[in-house]
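Training component of the fellowship. As part of building independent skills, the fellow (R.M.) carried out the full modelling exercise for a liganded target. The chosen ligand was calcium ion. The inputs are recorded below so that the supervisory panel can assess the work.
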Amino acid sequence: MSYRHALLVDDDPVFRALTEDMILDAGLGSVDMAEDGFDALAKLDAGMQPDLLVCDLNMPAHDGVSLIRSLSDRKFPGKVLIVSGEAAAVIDTVARLARMQGLNIIGSIRKPLTTEALNDALKRGAPARRFGAPGSVAPADPAVLDAAIDRGALIPFFQAKVCMRTCQVSGAEALARIAITHDEYANPVPYIQLAEQTDRIDDLTLALARTVAHHVRDYGVNGEPMPVSINISPLSLTRRDFPDQLAQIIEAAGLSCTQVTLEVTEGHLMNSGPDVLETMARMRIKGFGLSVDDFGTGASNIDRLQRFPFTELKIDQTFTRNVFTDSFARTAVETSVRLARELQLNIVAEGIETPEMWRYLADLGVDEGQGYLMAYPLAPTDFADLLWRGIPLLGALMRA
Ligand code: C2E
Ligand code: CA
Ligand code: CA
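Fellow's submitted model of the complex:
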């Protein structure tokens, strides 16, 4: 798969004209233009879905830094390329900031833009083939959300977690998919946001947990029941009865809560009150594992982190993916591993896409890896197949 549609945001009409040609020559199907951040956001609000956004930094209205913040707030799913006339150190800092805010930055280039630099960035950041991954990022439809929760159109896809010492599948993360037709699935993010806004997020999580438990009964790794991770919205951590409801579902399916790890994103935790801590303690007492997801994107340090009863730390994929191109990402990964060791947490790295990343993380002592290199998120029957056949590439990785 290659890029289809770019949105070019720059206030300079001459640069826009030159760059439009370069982007089209690089093989993209179409390019739209915006003259500043406001214009770009208006186009996105009107339903435009570019898979690449090329962004200047210095623009008179709603500059690149503000645009990046707005893109992050709305969880822009495409790739972003920063092209600016600012000093290299400034561009670098903004790119880091953008990655920390969760954006998928494929490069930061100092003007003048050349064909080589553009092609290089596009090649490096080419969208990965997302087998079994959500195809559509259209806004969430409330009727579809209700159907998903109440009538079984909420499907867990399973992405393998792999032990980095033995190269064996060690478990899986369940990722929500919304079935639109029998073989088309919507991106979960807008539906999770809608469920959070309409107070249906507990219903969504519990419905998904029911289906996950039903499938996981049939899955085993190394002759043992398979460990599985489920994502939990921070909102559910403020609900007193949530741990009981979840435990009841898991146990009714014949599983043990100790088989299940609950992933909570780091960003929302730090300002949370005693009610959240209480829910987390009760989850641990029931036997659930607790994972701090997307670690590195919030503002945790060792003092703050050890206030929470976590059992696992999950290094965010924006860091994993950039360890070889960004010294800040590398430092973040290495610091996270040290921190997790100190707190005796299981360490998982997500977003492993190349054998080089695998080797680097295995050498650092990361316990488990997850990423497209080993396995895409798969529909339940395809995942059962993967457990049965194993992952062929893993032997080669181990020998490398
Ligand atoms: P997440 O929990 O950080 O999940 C990892 C995301 O990275 C998944 O996206 C997965 O498909 C993708 N991914 C895995 N390996 C790679 C890789 O090697 N490269 C790249 N580029 N991406 C990789 P997905 O499935 O679209 O899920 C997006 C987010 O939606 C999740 O991020 C999670 O925050 C949320 N989510 C998914 N299911 C649920 C759910 O049941 N409940 C809640 N509350 N949130 C969920
Ligand atoms: Ca997760
Ligand atoms: Ca994550």
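The panel noted the following from the submitted structure. The first helix runs from residue 13 to 25. The mean pLDDT is 89.
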